[in-house]
Amino acid sequence: MSQDSSAAALIRRAGGSTIGSLFRARARLAPGALAVDDGQRRLTFSALDDRVNRTAHVLAALGVGRGERVAILSENRIEYLELELAAATLGAIAACQNWRLAPPELQHCISLVAPRVIVVSPRHGALLAKVDGGAATVVELGPAWEARLARAASAEPDEVAEPEDGLLILYTSGTTGLPKGAVLSHRAEIARALVFRHHLGGGATSSYVAWPPFFHMAATEPSFAALLDGSTVFVVDGFDAGRIVELVEEHELGWLVLMPGMVGAMIEELTRRQARPRGVTLCGAMADLVPAHQLAEVTRLLGCPYGNTFGSTETGLPPASAGHLPVGEVPRRLSKTQSPYCEIRLVDAEDLDVPDGQPGELAMRGPTLFSGYWRADETNARDFRGGWFHMGDMFRRNPDGTLDFVDRVKYLIKSGGENVYPAEIERVLLAEARVADAVVVRRPDARWGEVPVAFVARKDRSLSEEELLRRCRDALAGYKQPKQIHFVRVEDLPRSTTGKIQRHEIEGWLARGQIPRE
Description:
CATH topology of the domain at 17-34 and 44-185: Rossmann fold
CATH superfamily of the domain at 17-34 and 44-185: ANL, N-terminal domain
Number of helices: 16
């Protein structure tokens, strides 16, 4: 941190806690408490702190300093958290890479952040080999990495990070078809940890089952919250219903996050095992995309309410995740309750506040907000206009102050907890010379909540659905690939007076089962 000795500077420094410094403080307070457990290794806070220090020294020796990016391409494992916490100490930014991406998508994400170092697990080495890492030094987790740690110093490195420094870059799908890098500061992550604790309520543990991928906010952020609170992070390598239910039976847990598409499998496993949860405070996320009867069943089996959430990578759990759905009840409405520590407005196209009962775009400000998109000044100027972050989601405020989701300003498909913008898929389809036009819409799905479906107008009828699906498989992550392609005549695609294809009309075709024939 700055060595300015003026009174103002000293006061500012005294309030300058970071994720790294708060983790250190927790390790000193409860060195023998269990910090992380992956089913094979159990590390106390003291042991984890030691490995974080060594990791920081290894990264520093590789040239990582304040503001530098460390790209991480790995499945869930304890080393992932160690790397993030080491970056927190050095003032570096952990750029969390999505291993589900196809090589062209991953190339964009890595090139965007120009990392100093890329850390890869053996499982994903073949994927990284298909990508140009630029000038980055590539190191692989495993025996050689452990040997580096063993040789490194265990002393605490100097703390140089400041609250507004970037800590994480998490990627979000872009309306232009390419992912954007959302920069999350120490300030935002500390505020998000406090909101997480608020939603759990007093007295509850913050222990967390980190099964979503660490490149997702649903794993990294609750893990930070648990560690700062002195609770345990149980690291699980992806959604493993059997392992998750074991943990539910063995440990008291805070928020057990369940994504649409996974709730049914959890119900089956809990029922099969006749599980007796030791104690879960809250479960679930994104209730809108889960069948109502499953909401009632999973809460009954776990003995806890379901989180009626609405947040984002950019905002954290805010703006509207404070509501809980009661145990064992089929909800009649899914109106959202505003989270604490944020301010919101509902605005029209001119950014004027709309009256209650009228739909408006939700704009938010507060300490959980991200620090903008990496290298995207034009997008940041637009989305942060007026000093408020405009989410692109339309809501209506009810007389009781709750909020009802209306639609997305920027058309978005929420599939199994992942964001999919149609432009990502349309870009791939339109790259085929035999395609005259293409549009992608969402279709309700019992497992994933929503899935993408494509409508394509062909120039050449020799073009097959399998050829287009193969092109999508080569260029897109699995969850982004269209589940079906319908061929239609270009003149049948419904358009507005400005020539834009009207997605809601095409959704009506699907709902009615009346798709025009080519």
